[in-house]
UniProtKB/TrEMBL annotation, chain A:
This is Sarcosine oxidase gamma subunit. InterPro entries: SoxG, TrmE/GcvT-like. Coiled coil: none annotated. It comes from Pseudonocardia dioxanivorans (strain ATCC 55486 / DSM 44775 / JCM 13855 / CB1190). Pfam families: SoxG.
UniProtKB/TrEMBL annotation, chain B:
This is Sarcosine oxidase. Transmembrane segments: none annotated. Its EC number is 1.5.3.1. Residues 493-574 form the SoxA A3 domain. Pfam families: FAD_oxidored (PF12831), Fer2_4 (PF13510), GCV_T (PF01571), GCV_T_C (PF08669), SO_alpha_A3 (PF17806). Belongs to the GcvT family.
From TrEMBL, chain C:
InterPro entries: SoxD, SoxD_sf. Pfam families: SoxD. One of its GO terms (biological process) is tetrahydrofolate metabolic process. Gene3D superfamilies: Folate-binding superfamily. This is Sarcosine oxidase delta subunit heterotetrameric. GO terms for molecular function: sarcosine oxidase activity.
């Protein structure tokens, strides 16, 4: 026998990422984030609010074609149903779809539609809240990662636009090389200058530990923690 | 105490072409309290030698004075304490301003030894004294330790010493060259020019190897090679670093020292090809008095003269059997030292060095006696083949060359030896050989990289080099060298680090230890800081002499990692110990939760008073953070097949919106995990597992899907931390939750063992299970994790008037024990099959197949297995410790307590335990042996549950 | 540390993997005698030489796969999906 629900007003929900860094915070679109802006040459940014979906399906087939990439590579969708999304081939028949914060509903629906249209046995799970996501940007990023990850990060092994999963500081982590356009230092003036940048994606509960490990390893390179350097 | 300042000049020569010191600057450091001066580039030992210091330490067992022997990192005579750091290699470590350097464990002082020490020591220090003394009586062990400690030749680590940061990194060179002498540099340059990335590792502070202390031609070649190395961007040079070990597939441990930010760094390098260019190490000669200060190797003398411009003596006898010894004599003469050369190629050698505290005279094999303060020996070389041994290649002895050499046939294709370790030749021949080897090393590495690239998905461009078969590198020849190991009559020391004398080796053989490996362990020869690089071959030669066999027959001891002693800090390095936190962790910390480490998780054990937390759940309402509970999202039409396979119970009939408790067993019938699984939609399930079993169950399920049933359409996604999980438990839990959710909580609408989805505290997509581990009315909320803290705080705020309070893992364990719910892994172990865990009700043997069925079928037909039972001590105040044994009248173990607590609800102690089958009937009284040795009686209960066995409270 | 060639990810440090065991066929539980079943559960060939075994790439692709490995020198001969 349920008693009539007493009307209790609660504060509007505030979402928090897996990471908390010392210092002031601010609320952006319902997410509480660090208010610091990092300006150094090596920056660790919390991308926790990004929409994160995992897709499973046949490694080769219609789902793969629609997502635009396979295991080990990435595809950035500038148009179409998944416009704005970065698709990462995270495993054989396994993808990670990353979208801008706040687009969860639409991206989930669009991805589900892609899967439904494929006619293949495939599934989509929203793991936005279940994973930690950071971006490490700067020329020293590979040197830092070499302290915590046993994978060779040379261009010939992990070029821009590639992804792998391995142990990072003993946490199983998706590492995505996603260099960003360097607008300030672009000698050719044609937008081809790139700054090394990696996305690191792991299970949420290990996120703070992983970020702390990265900051510890990055101390000698002057790592700073703050808001992401670009919208992505 | 008066301070004495000692200049840099007493034995310092004028400027020399190859010197590595910067004479324009001077720095000060302390040596046993006195201030000394050094130039940048000086080692501690070279600065002290320049000031005329001859004695650096007292030896390990006999406290004999010891000076410089090798004047490099291997020097057994100058292990020093620098500040807090013990065992610093004084002939390698560069002098720095302000260093506080002391000789180690000199008792009472370096200069004044106590004769009594030797006399006291005498009875202990016979060959194999470790094994012969200190055995009985045991009660004297503490006294032995105190005495032994005084003799130990090691520094001190102050417990409050400075904390240093040790770093670690990975590296992936195509070619790693161990050794930066001429061959190593030539190989590195050739490999880099062939397109390989190269890591060049040199133990000393500069590249160049022996060329550094050579003549003008040597210095010129060195400069050219160094310039070539520096011109190659593909070569990373690590000086003051050592390749300490080689493991499978060229996994190499490189210890890097002398770095600005960290004490040391362990580089874990995976190389395509390892080029071993470790050079040759000059071998000491064994004769009476060979450990006196003033007895030096020819390389030591040339280092002191040509690198540090230090004159090592005034009157020298040079015993030489090779051109390098001849060169030392030449260098000494050029420095103004009186030199008498003894050519050991023609049978004349030294038999004894005499003197008090240092060499004063030298006796030769022809009976002559020469006054001298310096005795230089150049009697042969040892190839430090450690890295080759670690690659599976055992060296072979070549009597014509008087040394062990690598066996190329036994060396894997991924390892190539160059330079003196591989053979002899002119400098040009050695460099040409190394260049050929470097090119081949690059080709092999690039071929291997291409093979790896073929199956690596991140580089779809494929191979960037063709795969090719390894080609042999034309070998070097060997130079003839006389076999010179020890003088006759036999005397002196074979291992100066360990104070093992030549006679100790003979004694060991006489006592029956007639192989190198046995002698090594019995005498500890080769087990000191030089790790055999100075001592092994002489030891083998003495064993061969004593056993009447050849050196080749006797064989060397096995070289194992590490190549050189490595600090524990370097090995420990940066520590990776992942910890996991729930989204509510900041709240727990702010409310002084006692942390409990459970696997990687940090969880609240309690918030101050677990018994009060229990009472609050039984009487009102409590909330607990159960985020670590494993959660797996299961999707697909074949999920019921998977559930029926993994769980021992039946799953085909579970309706949408229902949850069911399930038990998993392994193929041997042993209980693996338990939990509830709910059906959220037609083809969508959410499985929960134990907190510790989350990873195991996921991998277990994937194993069955991938290896046995790849045709089943099931996708598993781990979502353990996609949700923050909160259990709201207690008779007032419905009242609390109703204030925050749009889900109809009425018992008719949302009954026991059901699942709903809805909004909680404004957060959509929450999953609510109505289940009960605590035995009370309770709801387990799975909230999108980013909102976990918001929902937790909302529950605390909304339930303030209801007395809501958090409870921790300890209260939950008490609550579940009151209800008799088992915990897999605590009340079961690696042998507990389902029937022994009281789970007969769950096992459905009429299912066609499930994991564990054959063994459970067997168990169901046999009645001899242990049983899990509820137990209550007759004395309600006694709580038998968990794992206490239950014993029979005859003293046999017939069971054990698996869980025990004081129940705040019942006011008495309660237990679960496993007992033998014949003791499991209700009312049976059993004896429990407590930890303090006393026995107590417990009674077997009819039910596992001590409280509300009918389960009425959770169904309201 | 040896390298293990994952058929999906390429060569990785063996610490990324979990050794599952000798690859073998599970007997039909409906027809296997208890003796056959226990032989399957508890008896392993454990040869000094080539053996076919199952590994799980837990820190990578999270796939189970079979390889043939020589237990004497850790040479790996073939790699392929278990299925």
């Amino acid at each position: 026998m349920s008693e009539p629900a007493a009307a209790v007003s609660t504060a509007p929900p505030v979402a928090r990422t897996a990471l908390a860094f010392p210092g002031p915070r601010r609320i952006v679109d319902g997410w509480e984030l660090t208010a610091r802006h990092a300006t150094g040459d090596l920056v660790l940014a919390d991308l926790g609010p990004l929409v994160k979906l995992t897709v499973r399906g046949p490694a080769e087939g219609a789902v793969r074609a629609a997502l635009g990439t396979g295991f080990g590579r990435t595809a950035r969708h500038d148009e179409g149903a998944l416009a704005g999304a970065l698709v990462v081939g995270a495993g054989p028949g396994e993808w990670l779809v990353l979208g801008p914060a706040g687009t969860g509903g639409e991206l989930l629906a669009a991805t589900r539609a892609v899967v439904a249209d494929s006619g293949e046995f495939a599934s989509v799970v929203d793991v936005t809240h279940g994973r930690a996501l950071v971006r490490l940007t700067g020329a020293a990023a590979p040197a830092l990662l070499a302290k915590v990850c046993a994978i060779d990060l040379a261009d010939r092994v992990v070029p821009d636009g590639s992804a792998f999963r391995s142990s990072v500081a003993r946490v199983v982590t998706d590492v995505v090389r996603d260099d960003i356009r360097d607008e300030l230092d672009d000698p050719a003036g044609d937008g081809t200058a790139r700054t090394r940048s990696y996305l690191l994606h792991c299970e949420r509960s290990s996120g703070q530990y992983l970020a702390d490990a990265l900051v510890d390893a990055g101390t000698e390179y002057g790592i700073e923690v703050g808001a992401p350097p670009s919208a992505r | 105490m008066t301070r004495r300042t000692v200049g840099t000049g007493d034995c310092r020569l004028g400027s020399r072409p190859g010197e590595v010191i910067d004479r324009s600057r001077t720095l000060e450091f302390r040596w046993n309290g006195a201030v000394h001066r050094a130039h940048p580039g000086d080692t501690i030992a070279s600065a002290l030698a320049a000031a005329g210091v001859r004695v650096f330490s007292r030896s390990y067992k006999y406290h004999r004075p010891r000076g410089l022997l090798t004047a490099d990192i291997l020097d057994p005579g100058c292990l020093l304490q620098v500040g807090d750091e013990p065992n610093v290699r004084g002939a390698h470590r560069l002098a720095e301003a302000g260093m506080d350097v002391r000789s180690q464990n000199t008792w009472p002082s370096l200069r004044y030894d106590v004769k009594a020490v030797n006399q006291v020591a005498g009875r202990f220090l016979a060959t194999g004294f470790y094994y012969k003394t200190f055995i009985k009586p045991e009660r004297l062990w503490p006294a032995y330790e105190r005495v032994l400690r005084r003799f130990v030749h090691a520094g001190e680590v102050p417990p409050d010493g400075e904390q240093l940061y040790y770093d670690k990194r990975y590296a992936h060179p195509d070619v790693l060259v161990a050794g930066g002498g001429p061959a190593g540099m030539a190989a590195a340059v050739a490999a880099a020019r062939a397109g390989a990335t190269v890591m060049l590792v040199e133990q000393e502070h500069q590249l160049g190897g022996h060329l550094r202390w050579g003549d003008a031609d040597d210095l010129r070649v060195r400069a050219e090679l160094v310039a070539a190395v520096e011109a190659e961007p593909g070569i990373e040079v690590l000086t003051d670093s050592v390749v300490a070990a080689r493991y499978d597939d060229n996994w190499l441990a490189v210890v890097q020292r002398g770095l600005p930010h960290v004490a040391e760094r362990l580089v874990k390098a995976r190389a395509g090809t390892l080029v071993v260019a470790a050079g040759l190490i000059e071998r000491p000669y064994v004769f009476a008095g060979n450990d006196l200060p003033g007895v030096m190797l020819s390389t030591a003398v040339r280092r002191l003269l040509n690198l540090y411009s230090v004159r090592p003596g005034q009157r020298a006898v040079v015993v030489t059997a090779n051109p390098e010894g001849d060169a030392a004599a030449t260098d000494l003469r050029a420095a103004g030292v009186d030199v008498v050369e003894v050519d050991a190629r023609h049978g004349r050698t030294v038999v004894r060095a005499a003197g008090r505290g240092g060499v004063e005279a030298v006796e030769l094999s022809d009976g002559s006696r020469l006054d001298a303060d310096l005795l230089v020996t150049a009697t042969g070389w040892t190839a430090p083949t450690s890295l080759l041994n670690m690659s599976g290649s055992n060296p072979v002895y070549r009597p014509d060359a008087a040394r062990f050499v690598p066996d190329p046939a036994a060396t894997p294709d991924t390892v190539i030896a160059v330079g003196g370790i591989a053979g002899d030749g002119t400098l040009e021949e050695l460099v040409a050989h190394a260049e050929a080897a470097g090119r081949e090393a690059a080709a092999r590495a690039l071929s291997l990289a291409a093979a790896h690239a073929r199956i690596r998905p991140t580089s779809p461009g494929g191979a960037d080099a063709a795969e090719r078969a390894p080609e042999p590198v034309a070998p070097l020849g060997l130079r003839r060298h006389p076999e010179l190991f020890f003088a006759t009559p036999i005397g002196g020391f074979v291992d100066m680090s360990e104070d093992v004398s030549a006679k100790d080796i003979l004694t060991a053989v006489q006592e029956g230890y007639d192989s190198s490996e046995l002698v090594k362990r019995y005498t500890t020869a080769t087990m000191g800081p030089a790790q055999g690089k100075l001592e092994t071959v002489n030891t083998v030669a003495l064993v061969a002499h004593a056993t009447g066999s050849t050196i080749a027959e006797t064989g060397a001891t096995t070289w194992r990692p590490m190549y050189t002693p490595v600090t524990l800090g370097a090995l420990a390095g940066r520590r990776f110990e992942p910890v996991r936190h729930s989204p509510m962790q900041p709240w727990h910390e702010a409310h002084r939760a006692a942390p409990l480490v459970a696997g990687q998780w940090i969880r609240p054990e309690h918030y101050g008073d677990p018994a009060a937390e229990v009472r609050n759940v039984r009487a009102g309402v409590g909330i607990i953070d159960v985020t670590p509970i494993g959660k797996l999202d299961l999707q697909g039409p074949d999920v019921p097949k998977l559930l029926n396979l993994l769980y021992v119970n039946k799953w085909s009939q579970l309706g949408v919106g229902r949850v069911r408790y399930g038990v998993m067993c392994a193929d041997d019938g042993v209980v693996l995990d338990d939990g509830v699984t709910g059906r959220l939609g037609e083809h969508h399930y959410l499985m929960s597992t134990t907190s510790s079993g989350a990873g195991t169950v996921w991998e277990w399920a994937e194993n069955w899907l991938q290896t046995e049933h790849p045709d089943w359409r099931v996708h598993i996604t781990p979502v353990t931390t996609a949700f923050a999980s909160i259990n709201v438990a207690g008779p007032r839990s419905r009242e609390l939750l109703a204030r925050l959710t749009d889900v109809d909580l009425a018992n008719e609408a949302f009954g026991y063992m059901n699942v709903r989805t809805g909004t909680i505290a404004g957060v959509a997509d929450c999953v609510l299970w109505r289940i009960g581990f605590t035995g009370e009315l309770s709801y387990e909320l799975h909230v999108p994790a980013s909102y976990g803290l918001h929902v937790w705080e909302s529950l605390m705020a909304a339930g303030a008037d209801l007395g809501v309070a958090p409870f921790g893992v300890e209260a939950q364990r008490i609550l579940r024990l009151e209800k008799g719910h088992l915990i897999v892994g605590q009340d079961t172990d690696g042998l507990t099959k389902a029937y022994s865990a009281g789970l007969a009700w769950a096992v459905k043997l009429d299912k066609p197949d499930f994991v564990g069925k054959p063994e459970l079928q067997w168990q169901s037909e046999h009645d001899d297995h242990p049983r899990l039972v509820g137990l209550q001590p007759l004395d309600p105040t006694v709580v038998p410790e968990e794992a206490s044994q239950i014993i029979s009248d005859g003293g046999h173990i017939v069971g054990r307590i698996t869980s025990s607590r004081m129940s705040p609800t019942l006011g008495r102690s309660i237990c679960l335990g496993q007992v033998d089958a014949h003791l499991a009937d209700a009312g049976t009284r059993l004896t429990v042996r407590l930890r303090d040795g006393r026995d107590t009686l417990v009674e077997v209960m009819a039910e596992h549950a001590h409280f509300d066995p009918e389960g009425e409270r959770q169904r309201v | 540390m040896m390298l293990l060639p994952c058929p999906n990810c390429g060569a990785r440090n063996v610490s990324e993997f979990r050794y599952v065991g000798e690859a073998k066929t599970r007997p039909d539980p409906t027809t296997a005698t208890p003796q056959e079943w226990r032989r399957h559960l508890y008896l392993h060939r454990n040869p000094a030489g080539w053996t076919r075994e199952t590994w799980y790439h837990g820190s990578g692709c999270r796939r189970y796969f079979a390889i043939e490995r020589n237990t004497v020198d850790n040479a790996v001969r073939t790699a392929g999906a278990t299925s």
